[in-house]
Specification:
about 350 residues; alpha/beta; Nucleotidyltransferase, domain 5; five-stranded mixed beta sheet
């Protein structure tokens, strides 16, 4: 089965052609990062307009590079939630028009389910059940993946997402957008024990997380140094911050995996590209005997390969009846509840 997949939930326009869920025939991504760097973050209107400008041409490239024609496509999968509503609507409406023109099924895919599926693309041997930590600009979740479409959230951030926290910390440190990679690079030359930063716990909810206090602590340290005219060791603050985020994420996943009886752990999302977090997960997995699945960097960020993969399993589960009534949603749980 050949699926054309479309992803436009934020500022990357992505199109891929995926066969039978795990074989990627082509994958195209157009990043708008340079455009949004001028403003220090994603401007939704600019993101939407650029999706409109590029999505048709990018789709033509993806089909051509896959070595197929449009008549070979069996279904179209598209991210419909969650994300920037204007950006999502571009992808959803384009997918609806193409599915109608080709008279093929349209498969709606939840963005977070797609991030989990990035591990299926990277690791053909991986099958549920397993525990997955999804950390991105908009989400920080621990998912109990019992099946390809049977996913239960057991832990989540109560406030900011880890990715948002990285971006805000990077911005206050004067780093360029996107903040995550820049902060990761800076942290490599710092001392991660120099600054004492909070690792909040949620009473009665051991798998849940909070990042707002950590973000505020970094902002206060930077502002206090500026007000006093002191030179700030930015590299060490970046390193201390990265370690604090990892200390919030990794132990919770290990604890949840033990208590829920999982032997396999996966991580996903843009923040999963952070070198400190990847290293800490590898260390803990080795210590506790877990099988660890860490996707390559190109599958951590938003891409259409993961949407095509998850779309295949959604199709097998019966999600093939979406039509012209399909809408986009800025917020929606993994279970489809808004």
């Amino acid at each position: 089965m050949i699926i054309l997949a479309i992803e436009t939930s934020c500022d990357e326009t992505a199109v891929a052609v995926v066969q039978n869920g795990r074989e990627v025939l082509s994958g195209e991504v157009f990043s708008q990062a340079d455009m949004h760097a001028l403003y220090g973050g994603v401007v939704p209107e600019i993101a939407s307009r650029n999706h409109v400008a590029i999505i048709g041409k990018l789709t033509e490239h993806a089909v051509k590079n896959a070595g197929i024609s449009k008549s070979d496509i069996d279904a179209i999968a598209v991210t419909y939630a969650p994300g920037l509503i204007g950006a999502l609507l571009v992808g959803v409406n384009f997918a609806k028009g193409l599915a109608l023109a080709l008279d093929i099924p349209l498969i709606p895919v939840h963005h977070i389910r797609g991030h989990i599926a990035a591990n299926y693309v990277a690791f053909p041997e991986l099958e549920p059940p397993f525990l997955c930590m999804i950390v991105s600009g908009g989400s920080s979740l621990i998912a109990d993946v019992q099946g390809y479409t049977d996913i239960r959230i057991v832990g989540r951030s109560r406030d900011d997402a880890a990715g948002e926290c990285f971006d805000k910390a990077a911005r206050v440190l004067g780093l360029c957008y996107p903040g995550g990679p820049a902060l990761d690079k800076l942290a490599k030359s710092g001392d991660n024990s120099l600054f004492s930063l909070p690792r909040p716990m949620i009473d009665g909810h051991p798998y849940d997380m909070s990042f707002s206090g950590l973000k505020t602590a970094v902002v206060n340290i930077v502002h206090n140094a500026q007000q006093k005219g002191l030179e700030l060791d930015k590299a060490s603050l970046a390193a201390s911050f990265s370690t604090a985020v990892s200390d919030i994420l990794v132990p919770r996943v290990v604890m949840a995996a033990k208590e829920l009886g999982h032997k396999k752990i996966a991580i996903a999302g843009g923040v999963a590209a952070n070198s400190q977090i990847r290293a800490d997960f590898r260390r803990e997995a080795e210590t506790h005997g877990f099988e660890l699945y860490v996707p390559p960097l190109d599958l951590c960020g938003d891409n259409a390969k993961m949407i095509g993969c998850q779309g295949y399993y959604e199709y097998l589960a019966g999600a093939r009846g979406a039509g012209m009534e399909l809408n986009a949603f800025a917020t929606m749980g993994v279970d489809g509840v808004r």
